[in-house]
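Memo to structure team: turn this sequence into structure tokens by end of day. - J.P.
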Amino acid sequence: MDKIMVEGINKNMDEIIERWIRRMKEEKGERFFHFMPDHLVEKTSREFAELMTSNISDSSAANTERINDFTEKVVRFGWAIKFVNKAIDNFSDVVYEFLEEQEIINESNLRTFNIIFRNWINPLRESIIDAYSTEWERTVSLQKIALQELSASLIPVFDKISVMPLVGTIDTERAKLIMENLLEGVVSQRAEVVLLDITGVPVVDTMVAHHIIQAAEAVRLVGAKCMLVGIRPEIAQTIVALGINLHEFTTKSTLQRGMQAALGMTNRAIVEVEAN
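Reply from structure team:
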């Protein structure tokens, strides 16, 4: 029966893929099949179909590698796990309906084919979703590491003045990294004034404010002053509403104003020079 099923699918693969693509385009919130180039949709759809059918008669390590390669690709394309699950459902439904139309599935073998489909789809679904979850977690982990590396550096801009631009959400793990880089940078750069720029931080809640206050206190203990800049109006309202006390260090609305204040704190100023 497996052989008959595989032969029926392979013989009519083009029609099956065409029907499957039509169904996927009807899915709510679908983007890939509408916005990607037709040749890429065709290539990816055929890879998916071949992946689905290969599992009927092949459960070897090579097929497992094929599943891993495909899931890596669809993660890059942005397929959500719900969308992947729906793709599997739609493909199995299209195949079943097509085999019924071709009378490969009929009343005499209906029970047998139902067992074959169950033994085919369920393990395949588990393998694809497991590989997808692993690849997605790996991708998120790499992005998180990249964000940490890019958004926790202390940058010397003038003698004795350094800036640390913060980008994205600050959790406990990132706060620890920020603290380490901040203290090491203050000592190595011999900074007297440090500006923490939170322009790129979308939300400042009690936990974020606590981490910032801790960082400012640590900077003070190593002999430098800390200034918080980039406080947008909505962030200021949140800080006031939460009752967060930021009186211990200077705050400025923009990095430019913070830089002017930092120069004043180190007995310097930016002045205009008239041309001769």
